[in-house]
Amino acid sequence: MKKLGYIFALGLVVLLASCASVQYNTTKVQSLDFSQYKTYGWLPPIDSLSKNYFNNDIAKSNILNAANKELESMGMQYSKDNPDVLFRYVSIVNNKSRLVYATPMYGWGGWGPWGWYRPWGMWGYGGYSYPVGSEKFRYAHLIIEAVDRRTDAVVWQARGSAEIKTPEKSINKLPEVVAGIFKQYPVKARK
Length: 191
Fold this sequence. Notes:
Layout: H1 2-18, E1 23-28, E2 39-42, H2 57-73, E3 77-78, E4 85-102, E5 130-148, E6 153-164, H3 167-182
Parallel strand pairs: 2-3, 2-4
Antiparallel strand pairs: 1-6, 4-5, 5-6
């Protein structure tokens, strides 16, 4: 029974670790009234020098369709001729590495060597961890920018970043990431 509990706990940890969440960051021109932008258009995507899994028709379609839906929910209208603001995006995928740690198992949870409580892993009572190697992983960023057409200046930029397990799943998740990025936009969607 105890072994079954360990297997269940390990499965839960693996499941939670596989649900890598997307982190969002944004910046904007603070003094600008974004409600002045009523129409929008698209600039071509910016070419990325990184390993790019999102440079295909399906990914482009997922990004543009989701972005258009979000912009229209804010009351903006698409215009080919003289839009108020132009949007563009860039996707970047980088290879990174991180340390892998080994940890002696003395039990489940407990207080660490300096009084830290560690309920999420099998560190045990007074256990410690040490690096034993490194592993490679892919990390992706989808950046969307708004450019004021009159001044040709970037007035807003937001980024969604997450670890990529498989390119196909990441491409299918793009509409969700785009929606999260546009939640950062200074004008909120209409109800």
